[in-house]
Structures are given as C-alpha cells and as structure tokens.
Design goal:
Blueprint lengths: L1 H23 L7 H10 L4 H28 L7 H23 L4 H15 L19 H23 L6 H17 L22 H8 L4 H17 L6 H19 L1
Helix pairs in contact: 1-3, 1-7, 2-3, 3-4, 3-7, 4-5, 4-6, 8-10, 9-10
C-alpha cells in the first residue's frame, strides 16, 4: 500500500508542476493581482489550469503527509538515515512551496499571509538575516515568484530523488492523479480571491498556517511560534538516530493534536 501511495505522490507532484508551468507564462509579479484575474476570466482555459494547479498541489501535500504517517507508524519500520533525512527536507520544502504559491495569488489574504511571514522572520533572532531573501522593496511578489517557480522546485526534485533514488512516474498513476484532480475541481469550489478593495472582517492564510496565526493572535512571540512550527521537522529529523523512537512518535502525535486544536 505504501508503495502505491508513493507513486501517487509523485504523480500529483508532476500534475502540479505541469499545470504550474502553463500558468507561469501568464503571471507577472509586477502586476500580480491583475494577472491572476486575467488568468481567471480572460485567458482561455486559464481558470481550468489554475484549478488543476491548486487541487493537484493540495492533493500532493495531503498524500505526502499520508505517505509519511504510514511509513512512520507501520510495524517493523526500517529507517535509513539518509533517505529519511531527505524525506524530511522534502516535506519542509513542500510547505514553503505551498506558502509561496498562496502568496502569489496576490489578494488580501495573500498580502496578509506575506506580512505575517515577514514579521515571523524579522522578529526572530538569526532568522531576521534571511528577510532580504523574501522581501523585495521594489516588486512585492518578485522574490516569492523566484522561490516558487525555480529554487524550491529544484530543491524539492533533488530531495525526492535522494529519497527514492530515482524519479519516474507510472502513466497509470499520472492518469489517476489527473482524474482525481479534475473531480475535486468539479466537486469543490476553489477558495475565492479576496479583492483588494473589498472590506472584510477576518482574513486567514493557508490552512496549514492557521495554528501559527492563532498563536500570534494570542500574543505568543514570533520566536515561540517559529519553534512550534519547527518541532515536527526536528522530531522527524531526529527519528533515525534516536534510540527510543516511540517517544518521538508520541511527541509528534501530541504536536499534531495541539496544532490542529489551535488551527480549528
């Protein structure tokens, strides 16, 4: 079962990449919001490819999490340090990739999420040195754009390759991934962009960022929030070399429950 999930994970990633490549030719960081609206309403099949990109990306993340949980809690698990480390790196990169993609839609929720991320980086010792890598004073979305379409995908492909030792997609699973993605697009409406001029009472970032936003609303410091966000990756990273693996698994489960509580 785990093997099939692994193939499906790579298939969703390929669908996301291909649909994203199509979208990128119509996206302009200097005029981000307007270009998104042109993709939605003017460019032929633009909204279709955007929905394909959105739902395949979300499916990729969900299937990847399922894959990791299945590997983590199956009996007689044999964890190879190198392979597991690259899997942890890949998971981290996927979350950053998803976040930068959320910001690139350039609506009110995207702008708010970007500002929150700037605060988390700027208000945390050491991390503040990395702020120039994401924040551009001239073109707001430019650096998010470069990270999303170039550096992060290359890093993800490298991490996946080092994890599975090869990258190949079975056409059967690719077909299944496209079918599932299109079915989701038909059954579930994609979240609407919040127009820049629209007055709203409450704005949220991507669903996996809700817990962090809630902690910030409770006046938890940026340093503490960043530590909370880093905990699951640290636990996964330590797993291969830690003698008492069940303790780390229990801690990870506790973190998941608590983060889900704050997110909801």
């Amino acid at each position: 079962m785990s093997r099939y999930i692994s193939w499906l994970t790579q298939a969703f990633f390929l669908v996301s990449m291909l649909s994203g490549i199509i979208i990128v030719f119509a996206y302009y960081p200097s005029n981000a919001y307007d270009s998104i609206q042109k993709i939605n309403y003017i460019i032929p099949f633009g909204s279709f490819f955007r929905e394909l990109h959105y739902f395949s990306s979300e499916s990729f993340l969900v299937i990847l999490l399922i894959h990791i949980v299945m590997e983590l809690y199956k009996k007689d698990i044999k964890i190879e340090f190198s392979s597991w480390t690259y899997a942890t790196i890949a998971l981290f990169v996927v979350f950053i990739l998803m976040f930068t993609g959320f910001v690139l839609k350039a609506d009110q929720s995207a702008n708010a999420a970007a500002q929150v991320s700037f605060s988390l980086i700027n208000d945390t010792p050491f991390l503040e040195n990395f702020l120039p890598f994401f924040k551009d004073t001239q073109v707001f979305y430019w650096k998010f754009f470069i990270w999303h379409i170039l550096f992060l995908p290359l890093l993800l492909v490298f991490a996946i390759y080092k994890h599975v030792k090869k990258i190949s997609v079975d056409i059967r699973y690719f077909t299944i991934a496209i079918a599932i993605t299109m079915l989701l697009a038909l059954l579930i409406p994609m979240p609407q962009d919040i127009a820049l001029e629209l007055k709203v009472d409450y704005i949220q970032g991507p669903w996996f960022f809700w817990g962090a936003e809630k902690l910030l609303e409770l006046s938890v410091s940026s340093l503490a929030v960043n530590i909370v966000l880093a905990i699951p990756f640290l636990l996964l990273f330590l797993l291969p070399s830690f003698r008492y693996k069940n303790i780390l698994k229990i801690l990870l489960l506790i973190w998941i429950v608590l983060y889900a509580y704050f997110s909801i």
